[in-house]
Specification:
By secondary structure, the chain is mainly alpha-helical. It has three helices and two strands. Bound molecules: FE2/S2 (inorganic) cluster.
């Protein structure tokens, strides 16, 4: 994840969930996986395209996936 994203960046367009909401779920609510993220934010609970590259069904592919964000914080 070399590219920098603003905290206002919308990671999940279906549910209009920003990067800052995802980070809050991970850091403050201790979300550890996609199910936790969906529980706290609703992100990834509709089409699923934002969860990972393999599930991205959109014509224009997303720049950032929930799995990438989780990977970064689960490694710490
Ligand atoms: S873009 Fe996140 S569920 Fe569709």
């Amino acid at each position: 994840m070399a590219q920098k994203f603003l905290h206002s960046y919308i990671v999940c367009s279906c549910k209009n969930v920003s990067l800052s909401e995802i980070l809050f779920a991970i850091k403050e609510k201790n979300a550890k996986n996609l199910k936790d993220i969906a529980f706290y934010t609703d992100a990834g609970s509709a089409c699923g395209s934002c969860t990972c590259k393999e599930k991205d069904v959109g014509e224009k592919k997303m720049d950032l996936y929930l799995s990438q964000i989780l990977d970064k914080y689960n490694k710490k």
